[in-house]
Amino acid sequence: MYNELNRIERILFDICSLSLLLFYSYAAIISPASTQYHRGIYVIITYILVFLLYKSKSTLMRIVDYLLIAGSIISIAYWVFNFEAINYRTGAETTTDMYIAIVGVLISIELARRVVGNIFVIIGVAMLAYGVYGDIMPDLFSHAGATFPELCVSIFYKSDGIFGIMANVLATYIILFVLFGAFLEKCGAQKFFIDFPLAAVGHKIGGPGKVAVIASGLFGSISGSAIANVVSTGAFTIPMMKKAGFKPHVAGGIEPAASIGGMFMPPIMGAGGFIMAELTGQPYSRIMLVALFPAFMYFFSVFVMVHYVAKKDNVVGEKSGHSALEIFKKEWFYTIPLITITVFMLYGYSPGYSAILGLISCIIISWIRKDTRIGPKQFLEAARSGTESSLKIGATVGVIGIIIGVLTYSGLVLTFADIVIGLAGGSLLLTILLIALASLVLGMGVPVTAAYLITAVVAVPALTHLGVNELAAHMIVYWLSQDSNITPPVCIAAFAGATIAGANMWKTAFSAFKFAKFLYLGPLLFGYVPGFSLNGSSTDIIKAFIFILIGTWAYSYFLSGIWLKTWLGIGKNKIA
Length: 576
What we know:
28 helices, globular
C-alpha cells in the first residue's frame, strides 16, 4: 500500500513514522509527555496515516481524504491545545467545543471503516443510537438518553472516550512493541525462529507440525496478531506439513491453532497484556508471570495433539541439514532482544523502556552479519513497516472510544454484571459460557484486542462478583476474546491458513477449532482453579500445575482420536 502513494505522500508517511518512533522513544526513556501530548500525538498521526494509506480510488474522493486529514488535525489539535480549559469547563462546553466533538466522533467512524470494515461501523453507529435513544429502550437496558451533540461531547472530551484507555495503551505500549517487532524481523531473527525448531523436532513424528507450534510460539509472542503469525510462519510451515503427509485442511488448521497461542505467550502477549495491566493496575511483570504456565499448557496441548494425529496417520518429517545445537551456537544472539525485554520488565522497568532497549539490541545484533545490518535506510524501512502494521489496531481507537464512552455514559457498565448473573442464575459456568458467546459475536466484527477491551469493561465485574479474582477474570475474557480467530463462522486466521494450504475453508476451520480446544479449557481453569493464576499457597499452585499438566496430555490424547484407531485395531485382531 505504501508503494501506491506518490512521492510527497511517501515522504509525509516516513516523517510521521519516524516522528512516532522518536517521540515515544524519548517519552519512554528520557521524559514522559503530559497526557494530552502523549495520547494526542499518537491519535493525530494515526488518523493522518490511515487516510493517507487507505485512500479512496477516485480523484474527487481523494480530495475528500485530504479534507478528512485536515478535519482530524483540527479536531485532535483542538483537544490537545485546549485540554486544561476543556477540563475546567466540563458540563459548560462552548458551541465550538460541541462542533469539534461532533467532527471528531464522525471522523473516527470513517477511520474505522477504512481499515476494519463496515461491521465495526455498524457497531459504532448502533452504540451512538443507543446513547441518544436510551429512554425508549427496554427497561433492562434503558437510560435517560441524550442529544447527539451532548453524547459526542462526552465521548470526545471525557477520559473514558476516544482519548481514553485504548488511546493510552496504544501510545504507551503497543506502538513501541509493534515497532520492536518490525526491527526484530529486520535484523533476521525470524529465520532463526523457524530454523531452530526445524532442526530440533522437524525430523520426528509429525515434525513439521511441531515446528509450526514452536515457531508460532516464538514469533507469535512478539507479532501481536494471530493472522500475521499465520501468514508469516505459515507460508513456510504449511507447505512443509503438506509435503510430510499432513492432509491440507489439517496442515491449514494446525498453524492458526498454534498462532493464537502467541497472544498468551510472554513477554509481549499481543496487545492484551498491556491493556490488562492498565485495567487492573498491576505491574506488567505480574501479568507475564501469571500468563506463563497457561501459555505453555496451550502450546503443550496443541503439540501433543499434533504428535498423536501424526502418529495415527504415520506422518514423519525430514532431518534438517544442521543440528539444533549447531544452529543455536551460530544464531543464539537472536534471542538477546527477547531476553533483554523480559529481564528488564521483570526487574521493574516499564514495558516501553524495555521495548526501546530491545529495539536497540536488534540494531546492534543486526551488524553481526553483513546482509542483515540496519543502517539509515533499513532503519527507516523498519520504522515504516512497524507504523503500517500498527494502523490495523490503531484505526479502532475512535470507535472503541465511542463504545466504551456510551457504555459508561448510559450506566450499562454497572448493570451488565447484574444482567449476566441474572441470566446465568448465579452459575459461574453459565456466566463464562455467556461471556464466550458475547466475545465470539463481538469478535466477528472487531479485532480481538478490541473485543477483549470492550468485553472486559462489562464482563469482569460479573466474574469477580462470583468470586473469581480480578486478574483471573481478565484472563478468562482475554482468552475467550481470541476465539473468533479459529471458531466458525468467521475464523479469519483459520481461513488464512486454508488459503495457504489450498484446502477447504470449512474443513480447515473445524480442524483449527479442534486443535485449539485448550482455548476453552483455559478459561474454566482460571475460573475454578485459583492456582492456575498463581492465586494460593505454593503447595496449591504446584499441585494444580501437576494435575493440569497430566490432564492436558490426557485430553489432547483423547481428542487426537488415536485411541479409537488403537481400539479398532485390537478389535480386528480379536476377530481374526
